[in-house]
Design goal:
Helix content: 40-55%
Number of helices: 14
Number of strands: 13
Shape: globular
Radius of gyration: 22 Å
Strand order of the largest sheet: 3-2-1-4-8-6-9
Structural class: alpha/beta
Distance between the termini: 65 Å
Length: 398
């Protein structure tokens, strides 16, 4: 009897300690986000030369916002940069808007590379490889097609590139788009659960990098063989950062979030994206299988409520409801900090989107674990432990 009781006490104590740790993460993310993000970027001192930046833009296909997103890279307030557009297929419709912008802004140093290179299983690396080999500046900015820049975004990223820093990345967020459930859901996800972990990881120096917008020192990439050395991974962004930290370099987030502005916003496609990220995390960091479900509001709330009842005889229902209310309020505050202005939806719409996110999170995690194969665009991949990817090609019947 006593061993069982001691075991239950141990579990109850563990869940309460873990629960308290999550609240510490909540508060830390809010405070750090308030101090770190959305600060005014000052120009570099006159005696400090602006380092040149090569921007790699891998493109595939078009969406309604592609042209306007790309145009923001032509109008940045930064004196020395080049834009290298990389497109794998010569028939890709993205070629036309790129050429139109190159004609509209002839003063901007740009090149278009078509064809890619076969250096691994990662199609993004294959697409960027010709552009990378032609890069002429010491800094490389890898920027996805759906990213929208402010005039001072590149200046802000360069400002954070200190001597001991090898990589500066932007925390994922989204632009204000048409007010519908799908766009609200995306903003709530990136402004709450994603931002919470991202901010605390940056503060603690933990690798939590996503590669949608990342500035890197080219010489450090060249030391390990360039970007082609990461062609065996699907999550090349994670391994970019790991390569830097393993060699003693620091990674930092910039003061401006990455403004994702895809022209297509659908719940099903975004859920598929979240599942793909989960599969990658599980393969790269297996401890995710245990810790990620416990970090979900509904799940840890249930365990903490049972623990409080078992150890202190507190009412579990009241405990659970207060837990959810406080979690909700902290997420609202954090999202408001990152938005740094009026949100494009009201509090009721936030409640609906937040509840859907919290209920949907454990479901998507379970689906990702159940089927570990990764479908990306028209290809399917299998991941080995450690994150190395193998493309799965169906057998051809003769």
């Amino acid at each position: 009897m006593f061993p069982v009781l001691y075991t239950l006490c141990g579990f109850a104590a563990f869940f309460l300690v873990f629960w308290c740790g999550l609240w510490l993460i909540h508060l830390t993310a809010i405070i750090y986000g308030k101090c770190k993000l959305n600060k005014k970027t000052n120009a570099l001192p006159n005696e400090t030369p602006y380092p040149g930046v090569t921007i790699l833009k891998p493109l595939m296909g078009v969406d309604p916002n592609l042209s306007s997103n790309l145009e923001t890279f032509f109008t940045m307030n930064y004196p020395l940069y080049e834009i290298l557009f990389c497109i794998e297929d010569k028939n890709d419709p993205a070629i036309m808007p790129v050429k139109r912008l190159m004609e509209k802004y002839p003063q901007v140093d740009t090149q278009l590379f078509i064809g890619g290179a076969d250096v691994g299983v990662n199609p993004k690396i294959n697409n960027m490889q010709p552009g990378y080999l032609s890069a002429k500046y010491p800094f490389i900015l890898v920027s996805d097609s759906g990213i929208r820049m402010k005039e001072d975004t590149l200046l802000d990223m360069v400002h954070h590139m200190a001597d001991e820093v090898g990589l500066v990345h932007q925390m994922p967020f989204v632009c204000d788009r048409e007010n519908n459930f799908a766009s609200n859901f995306e903003k709530i996800f990136f402004g709450t659960v994603q931002a919470r972990i991202y901010l605390v990881a940056d503060l603690l120096g933990i690798n939590c990098h996503t590669g949608m917008s990342a500035l890197m020192k080219k010489e450090l990439l060249d030391e390990v063989g360039g970007i082609q050395a990461f062609g065996c991974y699907l999550a090349e962004d994670f391994f970019f950062a790991k390569s830097f930290t393993d060699r003693g370099w620091k990674i930092r987030i910039s003061g401006q979030p990455a403004w994702q502005n895809s022209g297509y916003c659908e719940i099903t496609s975004f859920q598929a994206r979240l599942q793909r990220w989960t599969k990658l995390r599980v393969a790269m960091v297996p401890l995710t299988i245990l810790l990620e479900p416990l970090s979900e509001c509904m799940i840890i709330g249930g365990f903490a409520s049972w623990s409080a009842y078992f150890l202190f005889h507190w009412d579990p229902l009241v405990f659970y409801l207060v837990h959810i209310l406080l979690w909700f309020l902290c997420d609202w505050v954090l999202l408001s900090v990152i938005q740094n202005g009026s949100l494009p939806f009201n509090k009721f719409e936030f409640v609906v989107g937040w509840i859907f996110r919290e209920v949907n999170g454990p479901y998507l995690f379970t689906c990702a674990i159940w089927d570990p194969a990764i479908s990306w665009r028209s290809r399917t991949y299998k991941l080995r432990w450690g994150g190395i990817a193998e493309e799965h090609k169906p057998k051809i019947k003769l």
